[in-house]
Write a structure and sequence with these properties.
With about 230 residues, the protein is an alpha/beta fold. The chain is about 50% helix and about 15% strand.
Amino acid sequence: MTRETDDRPARVVVADDQTVVREGIVMLLGLLPGVEIVGAAGDGDEAVKLVAELAPDVVLMDLRMPRCDGVEATRRIRAEHPGTQVVVLTTFADDESLFPALKAGARGYLTKDAGGDEIVRAVRSVLSGDAGLSPSIQRRLLERLSAPEPEPAHPAEPPDGLTTREMEVLLLIAEGLSNQEIGRRLHVSTATVKTHINNMFAKIGIKDRAQAVRYAYRKGLVRLRQGE
């Protein structure tokens, strides 16, 4: 459901773990018409809680945050509070950041070199049902869509000692699924999913889901799944 554009300011929550950046965004947008900052969060968990409490129109979401990253927070917000849209505002414009965020339900994606007017335009765009993408992100999407699909390399076995089930969990993380969704897909408990994730993280030497997505892309595992 989208909100028709009108003269009311868009009610916005800003989520960023860096205090200076978060406060700077709040200050910048507070000087511009068309936006009302109603809350600020230091991580994804806090962002989800603020959305439940405040029902904002839009969350400006950083991706790399502790406890709960921006992709997971976006997925939870869109599943639990569909009246709130998400615009990613991040330093990163690589495929490993962009596509999981869009799959999780983000309707806009800007890099932090965006000006205040560009952020406001993205907010208004997503509220009217359009995508709020910066020109550089639009070009990146077009390049990705127009690029020929590489021939998938079929490994004889999962890399780095992963089990087949750990590989399945890794690929589902790369698709943007939460632990609960992975459990339903694989017909196992959430606790079992967490065990597989902990084992997989230890084997490949990573610490969070964003690193897992980068690992899957670097190893060509995501392309493998798409090519099957």
